[in-house]
């Protein structure tokens, strides 16, 4: 008879693992495809990190991103309770997921009257609630609907779990993050180091495309992405790619365009049925994992994120690489020396990013 596929000894730290069982020696080759370039989860597994009981809430859990994201989180050993909230269809998603034999307990909450219970005690709240783009739309075109959704959810967070880290996926991220921050400020519950716009998909895409173009192993590539999360505000720092990759000016411009347009390419390929969901779930699960590793005290956990920051004078909110830790963002990495092309990219994004930020701040503060 075949041996059982999984035993108590073969519990993995997270979904992405490919990693060896906790308690066994990990090797680079066996490392997680998501995190191995950073080696952070591998190290956590090696050190048999003391794992605290953590509650994670997903708001918009029945959607295109919410469902695969919840599956990935259900497989994350650092999460003891996964609270799934949506305005509809979430009970079935939770019932389905609850049959996966991992130790994460899944609970479902439907509609505004159950939102408070979903949030109470959460260490991390991930928000993929809201409408996605259709071909021909910009992310800004989602503002009218999604701004109100994010505002309402953040008002509830301010009351029910003001200490939680918040990962905002809902577009337009350039505006929804300022909306979240302003709502929390008004409620006296703002922790600037804990409000993070999820731009991990831009990093994931950059790593993939740069690896493919240079015949590199994807899991060894790391490209920081700064600015924001829309069009020309997405600025991959190809000059800072690790390992070092030489680009001609023409190739750098083409690669930058490809990364900036990647979301639109998926929207067009899906032809009216939505935008990136699976790669976004993967990216958000990586970000959640990094946040939780940081909360648990693991060292050297770095991610790019869009947040209120002083890193780039002239931009109140900006995406850049940060060190994560027990307090959320522990430290901002100063911007490295940029190539001439990247400096031009910074100038080019100024008008759009400033307008996006202003729209968010104004929306949150109108009566
Ligand atoms: N940050 C990023 O890199 C990315 C962001 N996105 C954005 O993520 C958002 C979600 O995308 P999908 O999951 O594809 O959309 P979807 O339409 O498949 O799912 C959205 C879910 O949100 C729920 N929802 C709506 N109003 C809600 C409320 N008030 N409270 C709780 N849940 C609510 C809906 O019932 C639905 O289940 C979109 O705004 C999209 O543009 C998508 C891809 C990448
Ligand atoms: O393009 C969209 O609308 C969804 C998104 O933000 C992305 O895929 O980067």
Automatic annotation (TrEMBL):
Positions binding NAD(+) in this chain are 60-66, 86, 146, 169-171, 280
Q: Give the top-level enzyme category.
A: oxidoreductase
Q: Enumerate the InterPro entries for this protein.
A: L-lactate/malate_DH, Lactate/malate_DH_C, Lactate/malate_DH_N, Lactate_DH/Glyco_Ohase_4_C, Malate_DH_AS, Malate_DH_type1, NAD(P)-bd_dom_sf
Residues where substrate binds: 133, 139, 171, 205
Of the GO CC terms on this record, one is: mitochondrion
Q: Which residues form the active site?
A: 229 (proton acceptor)
Q: Which GO terms describe its biological process?
A: malate metabolic process; tricarboxylic acid cycle
Q: Which UniProt keywords apply?
A: NAD, Oxidoreductase, Tricarboxylic acid cycle
Reaction(s) the record says it catalyses: (S)-malate + NAD(+) = oxaloacetate + NADH + H(+)
Q: Tell me which residues make up the Lactate/malate dehydrogenase C-terminal domain.
A: 199-363
Could you tell me the EC number(s) of this protein? 1.1.1.37
What Pfam family is a match, any one?
Answer: Ldh_1_C
Identify the residues that the record assigns to the Lactate/malate dehydrogenase N-terminal domain, covering every copy. 55-197
Keyword NAD among record annotations: yes
Q: What is an example of a GO molecular function annotated in this UniProt entry? A: L-malate dehydrogenase (NAD+) activity
Subunit and partners: Homodimer.
Similarity section: Belongs to the LDH/MDH superfamily. MDH type 1 family.
What is this protein's record name? Malate dehydrogenase
UniProt source species? Chlorella vulgaris (Green alga)
């Amino acid at each position: 008879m075949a041996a059982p596929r999984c035993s108590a000894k073969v519990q993995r730290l997270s979904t992405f693992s490919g990693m060896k069982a906790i308690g066994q020696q990990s090797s680079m080759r066996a490392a997680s495809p998501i995190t191995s370039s950073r080696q952070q989860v591998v190290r956590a597994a090696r050190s048999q990190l003391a794992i605290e009981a953590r509650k994670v809430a997903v708001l918009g859990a029945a959607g295109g991103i919410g469902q695969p994201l919840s599956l990935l989180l259900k497989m994350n050993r650092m999460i003891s309770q996964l609270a799934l909230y949506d305005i509809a269809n979430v009970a079935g998603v939770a019932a389905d997921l609850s049959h996966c034999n991992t130790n994460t307990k899944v609970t479902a909450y439907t509609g505004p009257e159950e939102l408070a219970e979903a949030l109470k005690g959460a260490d991390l709240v991930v928000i993929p609630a809201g409408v996605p783009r259709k071909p021909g739309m910009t992310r800004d075109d989602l503002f009218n609907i999604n701004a109100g959704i994010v505002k309402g959810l953040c008002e509830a967070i301010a009351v029910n779990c003001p200490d939680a880290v918040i990962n905002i996926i809902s577009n337009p991220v350039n505006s929804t993050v300022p909306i979240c921050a302003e709502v929390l400020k008004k409620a006296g519950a703002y922790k600037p180091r804990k409000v993070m716009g999820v731009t991990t998909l831009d990093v994931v895409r950059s790593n993939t495309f740069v690896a493919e173009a240079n015949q590199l192993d994807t899991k060894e590539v790391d490209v920081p992405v700064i600015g924001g999360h829309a069009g020309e505000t997405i600025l991959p720092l190809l000059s800072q790619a690790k390992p070092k990759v030489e680009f001609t000016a023409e190739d750098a411009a083409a690669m930058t365009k490809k990364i900036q347009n990647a979301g639109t390419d998926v929207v067009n390929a899906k032809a009216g049925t939505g935008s990136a969901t699976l790669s976004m779930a993967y990216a958000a699960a990586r970000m959640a994992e990094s946040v939780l590793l940081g909360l648990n005290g693991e060292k050297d956990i770095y991610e790019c994120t869009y947040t209120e920051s002083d890193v780039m004078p002239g931009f109140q909110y900006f995406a850049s690489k940060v060190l994560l830790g027990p307090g959320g963002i522990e430290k901002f990495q100063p911007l490295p020396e940029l190539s001439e092309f990247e400096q031009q990219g910074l100038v080019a994004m100024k008008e759009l990013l400033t307008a996006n930020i202003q729209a968010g701040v104004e929306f949150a503060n109108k009566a």
